[in-house]
């Protein structure tokens, strides 16, 4: 497999891990000193960092376990990536991709069965987030690992303790 | 073209055929003994098989002709796949991809023309389904063909004759 | 990088340029004599051309500057492409891809901060358009450039001066 495909598959495994809330699997894709930063849109159209950077696979694993809500019953998600631009230079690489997150919520089958005439999939699929992954990787012992992962989101972000702050962060 | 790209294009042709309701074209992508199984989510979060497996390209063609609703006037669809993970081993391969299905419904132009001030695309694009394609392929006379195609859907599924059954299928 | 990946990245840069309303960047992906034609769905299910063809990178740049609405505050978009089929023959190539356009609209943070209990992304992501890119490219001085770009859209299209016309264009 060529390097470009191998790098793209790191992101394919990243989205499967995040959709499965598999923090250990997601963390294993990062180096120990990787830096992960999330940015949200603010009113002037620029972006502001959300919270503090996460550091390394351990930081990613902690964030998945503590900051990502578990899926409700019959709920799931798809982080879909597209239009990858990948530059490889020796044992380092940079990847830029678009992402859209879909939230999936199934309708539970009623105790007495589906009403007469009900046919096909039951539930809703809804896009809830979009943005870019701007990611740097390094070849470590033959495997591409993420060393830097910036996530410029397209939407404003409200932190739990949100309120007016001197830095104007949303 | 490398094997990975050739395999990914089998899926690209599969989604075009299914969106065009082209059963013959879709069936031609499968071996005669291919096994196709659809799985839906059930209440406990696991999956249950929807109906019986389809067998071979002929089975796929029959299903497209008999089980897929034709598009309404100005209606169409896009089965979009993303984040492919592909493993090739000699003349066999395994492909895993995310999919999201979009239903497209155009608004017919009124007999007297669009109302004043109406500009741009007229209609709706709506995600209605999502899940994974988990697919095995084999190189047959120089072409990759699907030998096994599992479709774990993310939503519960109501069959036309749905009702309580001993197997608890939804 | 193989030719197939290089060609796919032309489209990846195309969608970034169009989402950024970067007419110069988008135009630079086309040859001077490139022909761009947009087609919309009409009532009988066939397609009719929208307006006149655009010619060359200059035509594309003009169209982005004059025909594409700027994003509103906290607004953005993603043209997402998928399921590419690419055929390369010497220094020419043909690319077919699905596309879905997502419109993103953020909610501005209230002057007094987000209401208590507000957490996460604030705003909406909405698919608004879909169709295909049917594109021909040529290798010019070592770079793939678009020579022909057809965009069969899935939805009817209302032009600003729409009304009944002899050609029946919608």
What key phrases describe this protein's structure?
six-stranded mixed beta sheet; alpha+beta; 3 helices; Nuclear Transport Factor 2, Chain: A; 8 strands
Commentary on this structure:
- 3 copies of one chain form a homotrimer.
- Chain A is α+β, with helices and mostly antiparallel strands and 170 residues long.
- The first copy, chain A, has helices at residues 3-19, 23-27, 56-67; strands spanning 30-41, 47-55, 75-89, 92-106, 120-121, 123-140, 143-152, 157-158.
- Chain A has a 6-stranded mixed beta sheet, covered by helices on one side.
- In chain A, a hairpin with a 2-residue loop joins strand 6 and strand 7 (143-152).
- Chains in contact: A-B, A-C, B-C.
- Chain A binds chain B through residues 1-2, 5, 9, 11-13, 15-16, 73-74, 76, 78, 80-82, 102, 104, 106-109, 112-114, 118-123, 125-127, and chain B through 2, 4, 40-43, 45, 80, 82-86, 88, 98, 100, 127-130, 153-160, 162-164, 170.
- Strand 8 of chain A pairs antiparallel with strand 6 (120-121) of chain C, so a sheet runs across the interface.
């Amino acid at each position: 497999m060529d390097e470009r495909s191998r790098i793209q598959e790191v992101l394919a495994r990243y989205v499967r891990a995040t959709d499965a809330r598999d923090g250990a699997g997601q963390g294993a894709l990062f180096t120990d000193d990787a830096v992960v930063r999330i940015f949200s849109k603010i009113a002037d159209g620029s972006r502001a960092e959300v919270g503090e950077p996460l550091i390394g696979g351990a930081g990613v694993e902690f964030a998945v376990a503590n900051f990502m809500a578990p899926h409700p019953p019959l709920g799931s998600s798809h982080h879909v990536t597209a239009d990858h631009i990948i530059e490889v230079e020796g044992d380092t690489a940079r990847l830029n991709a678009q992402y859209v997150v879909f939230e999936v919520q199934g309708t539970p089958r009623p105790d007495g069965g589906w009403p007469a005439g009900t046919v096909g999939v039951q539930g809703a699929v809804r896009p809830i987030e979009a943005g870019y992954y701007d990611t740097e990787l390094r070849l470590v012992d033959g495997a591409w690992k993420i060393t830097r992962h910036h996530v410029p989101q397209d939407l404003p972000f409200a932190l739990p303790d949100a309120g007016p702050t001197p830095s104007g962060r949303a």
